[in-house]
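Morning!

As promised:
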Amino acid sequence: MPCQHYISAISILHWCRLTIFSVSPLRHGTISFIKFSLHNLSLPFLGSSQSFPSFNLFLSSAVVSVLPLHPSSLSGCSVLIAYGEFWSLVVKMSTPSRKRLMRDFKRLQQDPPAGISGAPQDNNIMLWNAVIFGPDDTPWDGGTFKLTLQFTEDYPNKPPTVRFVSRMFHPNIYADGSICLDILQNQWSPIYDVAAILTSIQSLLCDPNPNSPANSEAARMFSENKREYNRRVREIVEQSWTAD
Amino acid sequence: MQSKEASVEDGEIGPVTGAGSEMDEWTNFGDDDIMQQQYTIQAEEAKKVPFVGDKEALSSLAAEYKSGSPILLEKIKLLDEKYAAIRRARGDGNCFFRSFMFSYLEHIMESQDQAEIDRVKANVEKSRKALQTLGYADLTFEDFFALFLEQLECLIQGKETSISHEELVLRSRDQSISDYVVMFFRFVTSAEIQNRTEFFEPFILGLSNTTVEQFCKSSVEPMGEESDHVHITALSDALGIPIRVVYLDCSSCDTGGVSINHHDFMPVAGDLPDASCSSEKNIPFITLLYRPGHYNILYPK
């Protein structure tokens, strides 16, 4: 990354954690500021939404000494900022991937597709938990299937690794839960956000592709013995209710 | 995941382990492993050629074909009369877009043509609107658009953000910038094709026998998908930038003579804001060398 990350050093009286997800990478001098959340902390000088210019002011007046750090030494691109003698903050600088994931999340919350939910884990925007509900009027009806999505800093140029945590029985899902779906592999494109990924997986449930079987037993049953296949799917649906 | 990666590496080293366990490894060889392996191959390729290479004398091209077809050697001689240098792009399926990117940005930097920046920006905004109309969520493309526009602005000298030619080369080799610009062009190309479905449909049917939308999803929007005349036409039209493609292949004329063919992709005139201006403006300043399966940048003498 051609961006710079700074860490300030100061005697620390009080540690607080401030997570700012959307200070974009210092991509050649431009920063945008979208949203931040405070943990156990109220700061008189920061409202609930702060435009960047005043944040900039805050940075320059508050940082006492600034040391450039190699980005790789800052996992998650944290920045320590000290404010006078009273506050020291940990700011999460966001990379393009993190910034994008926040927007994916916002969109998923504001406009959730039917039968899908997903959210990043508490302290890790790169790891998401998701649930796909089996589509109505299909053998999958009523199932609640859990997945994880692991993103890298290459997102959205590279797809996340998506896995079912719940046990599955499906022609295109491997025993370890990984999914054989073209848009998660060679047909990946940044046009897909998390909502689109989950929607595609949801439609894969009822519309398997028997030509690229990941579970040969399921693939065979799907084309040769639909009744038995549907029975196995119902079993998986019932298991999804009891599994942790 | 960790152990799986390790087993892939073992598999590559050879059948050191017993046949049985090797079988197990292959049954466990899932899509993730294939992707992983693909990334590894890409990384190895990356070590050999940067996204955008250095400018090389055209003689380096001749050296490549030393013992090659006499037709090719003859053609390279002809190329040598008109063109001074070549700049190679990595053969990662993005070479057309990458060559176009560098060639265009370099042209703006050398010409310091603010009017061209303003003109292309207006077309970029049209593409943005087209994507929105097509139903693409802003969040999926806005970063790519923003980054491209940012790069454009840096090319005009005398500003705080101005960059040198050296920096331009570095940025073209920096994945976090270069891939974003390539993806930006893919978005623009896809929007143009889908916006003019009736025009592009026959060409696309000839290429892949799929619907226009499916073609964009599978052959335009994913990184690493190679470009064809459909992509070039669409990008040239969308941005209003003419492109010359010089063909270097083993074909020869019936008369036995050897000549170099080129094709100029000229943007649809109606879409050009300054179409009424002198036609001189429409002589392509971007020249790409096409050899079957690959594009590089050519520099005229």
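The longest strand of chain A covers residues 124-133.

Hope this helps with the figure draft.
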